[in-house]
Amino acid sequence: MGNREQTFQKILEVAYVMFAEKGFEKTSLAMIAAEVGISKPAIYYYFQSKDQLISFLFEELYKEIQYDIVVDYKELSPSNFIEKLLKIGYKSIDEQDKDPYFNKIFSQYLLLAARDDHYMQQLLELQSDYLARFYDIFQYAVQLEVLDENANIEAKAHMLAMLYDNIGNFMLTGSQLNYKAIWREAVHSVIQGGKDE
């Protein structure tokens, strides 16, 4: 990796942490440049404005979040369906546990979305995508006969999607809950309660 690429990555890493800890309003490009070890004019080579940097980071986070719920349907079977569903939640919990900045910076984007329709639209699309992905997984569960075809799979899928999303919010507050146990209970409840209803 060349010096320009290294500097670019360093800017992103520093901005990610500073935006999470101080917020968008209280973080300037000059502060980011100083932390990276470059001059303020030099940062403009990479980003023309703080808004452009904020937007770029959001796009990166957006892609990362979308990738979180990727299921290889060829790997799913009646015998491992619950295990695979559990892993989706466990992976998210582990990643958020390792990255104390993710929920903080995402909260900044939620605040930004309250006054910027562009971000609001993207967050709504992300939310719709979450719901659709869980619904697709549950439709496949019916094909595998893990769930009965008369089960209310839309409500079940949306319930898990909402829990998946909200676990992160609780983690942000520092609530010391057994998130994996909660996820496990929810998965078993919607699957085992969804047979022959």
Automatic annotation (TrEMBL):
Keywords per UniProt: DNA-binding, Transcription, Transcription regulation
Domain HTH tetR-type: 5-65
KW Transcription regulation (keyword) present: yes
Chain residues forming the annotated DNA-binding region: 28-47
UniProt cross-references to Pfam families, sorted A to Z: TetR_N
GO MF annotations in UniProt: DNA binding
BP-aspect Gene Ontology terms: negative regulation of DNA-templated transcription
Record's signal peptide: none
Protein name: TetR/AcrR family transcriptional regulator
Organism: Lysinibacillus irui
